[in-house]
């Protein structure tokens, strides 16, 4: 045993004294290391080191975005056989369909399949239905698809844009139509025509950025009824009861009942998608109330026990919501992210005892938009009741001041790393920066309205990093940027 031990020590000593090169690592381990790198520029740089690195990088790349015009087949790269996520949305110059630029459409589609045989995630610019008619059969095992189109649809038959996709891709689990211009009545009949595909969907994004038209109540119910296994659902809809097909509390409850497995629910009023910056001087209330009652909200929360992220941007008054939000904590125990728009009375903040939204103690991300009656005492109550918050946003809250935000930053100084303050009447750039001083060393991401007012600097303010403009500056309201602390200080110094 002693001899064996000495022999092992001798071998180890020789290995340490020898010149071991990085290329001595087995190729299997090198491939594992390369596969962990996802940044495109880093991978491009790695491929230029040497021929061996070039081959390993090409054989381990799983994401690829093509650009240009691929009408010439010899220009297709043939070394990315391991690509599973393929983006073809940028290979249609000047808005021309991807396959229409080739004299042999079927041959080009087959060449794409042969060049990228492992694709399961596809992003494609589908200006007309013929694109998917040729491409979908090439990858029948597609799991995730994102369609892109910025122009009005050319077909007249409802749902014709999706029929080829649903006909050939029976394993589809995710469909993203957020950048696909289509009519809201197109999707429901296509899903109803292919019930097996609809049942396999777990992620559906119809939060359309290309159109101001929202989905009507009956369309949402038809979609969710056809897709009972959805886990993530994002949609643009209409909450204004003056319009036909508006979404009310009964629709919300039926939607939750149709898809009880939802972990992410994101419903946004269509007017919020294109809304300009609000007026800080109005009282924060809209002229019309949404038809959403508190008891129905509670029933909706009870129907979604697996919910982890909830966004309800209603754009119309939902009043006295603190009772329903208290129940949210017990009905949805997994909830970590919450965003509410035009919800009033989220927290009474009368005494030190937390109430309303402040009882959601497991929240890690909270966004409150256009809450007309949120006060500093409410902010303090929220920060005391939600000690895990790492991300906090307030937008259009007219009654909160520097004092409340300072308390929030002080109480949550150990967890808070991301803050957004926008269109709050008493929180301009100077006061916002001053309020966030307790977390200035831990803040990783900051978004504030770059609106400066003329302020007089005291001696203490002159030494503070949050007020480095001599006498204050007025900047355009349009200059709103995401800035880290160091970048923000440099911006202030330049001004």
Give the helices and strands, then pairings.
Elements lengths: L1 H16 L9 H9 L4 H7 L4 H10 L2 E5 L17 E6 L14 H11 L5 E5 L4 H6 L8 E6 L10 H9 L5 E7 L6 H7 L1 H6 L2 E4 L10 H10 L5 E6 L11 H10 L5 E6 H4 L20 H9 L6 E10 L3 H10 L5 E7 L21 E5 L6 H10 L5 E5 L6 H10 L6 E5 L6 H7 L9 E5 L9 H5 L16 E4 L1 H10 L1
Parallel strand pairs: 1-2, 2-3, 3-4, 4-5, 5-6, 6-7, 7-8, 8-9, 9-10, 10-11, 11-12, 12-13, 13-14
Antiparallel strand pairs: 14-15
Spatial order of the strands forming the largest sheet? 1-2-3-4-5-6-7-8-9-10-11-12-13-14-15
Largest sheet: 15 strands, mixed
- Mean model confidence by pLDDT: 84
CATH superfamily of the largest domain: Ribonuclease Inhibitor
Segments where pLDDT lies below 50 for 5+ residues? Answer: 455-495
Number of helices: 19
GO biological process, one term: SCF-dependent proteasomal ubiquitin-dependent protein catabolic process
Domain COI1 F-box: 25-62
InterPro entries: COI1_F-box (IPR041567), F-box-like_dom_sf (IPR036047), Leu-rich_rpt_Cys-con_subtyp (IPR006553), LRR_dom_sf (IPR032675)
Region (Disordered): 459-481
Q: How does this structure look, described?
A:
Residues 459-481 are annotated as: Disordered. Residues 459-472 have a biased composition (Low complexity). Pfam families: F-box_5. One of its GO terms (biological process) is SCF-dependent proteasomal ubiquitin-dependent protein catabolic process. The chain has 19 helices and 15 strands. By secondary structure, it is an alpha/beta fold. It folds into two domains: 22-61, Monooxygenase, CATH 1.20.1280; 62-437, Alpha-Beta Horseshoe (Leucine-rich repeat, LRR (right-handed beta-alpha superhelix)), CATH 3.80.10. Helix 7 (160-168) packs parallel to helix 8, helix 10 packs parallel to helix 11 and helix 15 packs parallel to helix 16 (402-411). It is globular and about 70 Å long. The model is unreliable at 455-495 (pLDDT under 50).
């Amino acid at each position: 045993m002693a001899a064996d031990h000495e022999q092992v020590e001798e071998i180890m000593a020789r290995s340490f004294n020898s010149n071991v090169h990085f290329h001595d690592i087995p190729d299997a381990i090198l491939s594992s290391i390369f596969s962990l790198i996802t940044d495109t520029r880093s991978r491009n740089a790695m491929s230029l080191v040497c021929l061996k690195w070039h081959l390993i990088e090409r054989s381990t790349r799983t994401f690829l975005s093509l650009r240009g015009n691929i009408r010439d087949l010899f220009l297709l790269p043939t070394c990315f056989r391991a690509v599973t996520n393929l983006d073809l949305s940028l290979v249609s110059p000047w808005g021309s369909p991807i396959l229409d630029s080739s004299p042999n459409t079927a041959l080009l589609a087959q060449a794409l399949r042969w060049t990228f045989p492992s694709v399961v995630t596809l992003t494609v610019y589908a200006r007309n239905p013929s694109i998917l008619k040729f491409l979908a059969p090439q990858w029948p095992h597609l799991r995730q698809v994102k369609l892109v189109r910025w122009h009005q649809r050319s077909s007249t038959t409802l749902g014709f844009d999706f029929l080829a996709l649903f006909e050939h891709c029976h394993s589809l689990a995710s469909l993203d139509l957020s950048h696909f211009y289509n009519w809201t009545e197109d999707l429901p009949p296509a899903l109803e025509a292919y019930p097996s595909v609809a049942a396999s969907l777990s992620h559906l994004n119809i939060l359309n950025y290309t159109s101001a038209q929202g989905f009507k109540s009956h369309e949402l119910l038809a979609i969710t009824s056809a897709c009972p296994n959805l886990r993530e659902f994002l949609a643009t809809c209409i909450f204004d009861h003056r319009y036909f097909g508006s979404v009310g509390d009964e629709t919300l409850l039926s939607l939750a009942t149709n898809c009880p497995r939802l972990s992410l629910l994101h419903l946004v009023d269509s007017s919020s998608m294109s809304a300009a910056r609000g007026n800080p001087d109005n009282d924060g209330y809209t002229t019309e109330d949404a038809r959403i009652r508190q008891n129905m909200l509670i029933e909706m929360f009870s129907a979604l026990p697996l919910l982890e992220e909830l966004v309800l941007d209603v754009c119309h008054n939902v009043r006295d919501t603190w009772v329903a939000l208290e129940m949210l904590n017990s009905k949805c125990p997994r909830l970590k992210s919450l965003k509410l728009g035009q919800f009033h009375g989220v927290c009474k903040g009368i005494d030190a005892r937390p109430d309303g939204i402040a009882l959601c103690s497991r929240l890690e991300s909270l966004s409150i938009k256009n809450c007309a009656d949120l006060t500093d005492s409410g902010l303090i109550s929220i920060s005391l009741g939600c000690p895990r918050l790492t991300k906090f946003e307030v937008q259009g809250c007219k009654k909160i001041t520097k004092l409340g935000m300072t308390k929030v930053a002080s109480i949550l100084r150990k967890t808070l790393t991301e803050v957004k303050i926008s269109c709050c009447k008493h929180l301009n750039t100077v006061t916002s920066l001053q309020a966030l001083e307790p977390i200035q060393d831990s803040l990783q991401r900051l978004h504030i309205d770059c609106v400066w007012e003329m302020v007089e600097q005291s001696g203490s303010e002159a030494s503070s990093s949050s007020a480095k403009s001599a006498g204050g500056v007025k900047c355009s309201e349009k200059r709103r940027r995401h800035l880290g602390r160091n970048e923000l200080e440099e911006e202030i110094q330049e001004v």
